[in-house]
Design goal:
single chain; about 130 residues; alpha+beta; Deoxyribonuclease I, Chain A; 4-stranded mixed beta sheet; two-stranded antiparallel ribbon; 3 helices
């Protein structure tokens, strides 16, 4: 799991952000990007860059279109993202909590219903000898 933040004065650095898009991973964070794919009314340059990374790495947007940020004037935006690789996406869930805890960002929960099995050392399981 990776948690990313990109401030408004930073560009989306495709090579840097691409390192988070690894197999069997989930990416969450505030990338300050807008894209119709996650419910924004328009797509900006940042949103287009993130969408390209999503497509190139076979990830899925888990957001359901609900806004995650409230501006000082009361308008709302969808800036918080939750992304999952294709192998985890169908077993993952995204939701917004109703209590903002006094923040302009709505708390979100990203969960997956996948249980990973620890590596098993099979050398200690069976000792077979030729009889």
């Amino acid at each position: 799991m990776a948690n990313l933040y990109t401030s408004l004065d930073q560009d989306i650095v495709t090579n840097l952000h691409a390192t988070a898009f690894t197999p069997n991973s989930i990416i969450v964070g505030d990338l300050n990007s807008k894209n119709t794919r996650w419910g924004s009314p328009r797509t900006d340059k940042r949103g287009a860059s993130i969408e390209k990374l999503i497509d190139e790495n076979n990830f899925t947007v888990l957001n359901n279109g609900q806004p995650t940020y409230t501006h000082h004037n009361g308008t709302r935006s969808r800036l918080g993202l939750s992304l999952a690789c294709h192998t985890l996406a169908t077993n993952s869930n995204w939701e917004i909590l109703s209590d903002t805890l006094g923040s302009d960002q709505s708390p979100t929960i990203t969960s997956t219903n996948i249980h990973f099995i620890d590596d098993i050392d099979i050398s200690q399981k069976c000792l077979l000898t030729k009889g």
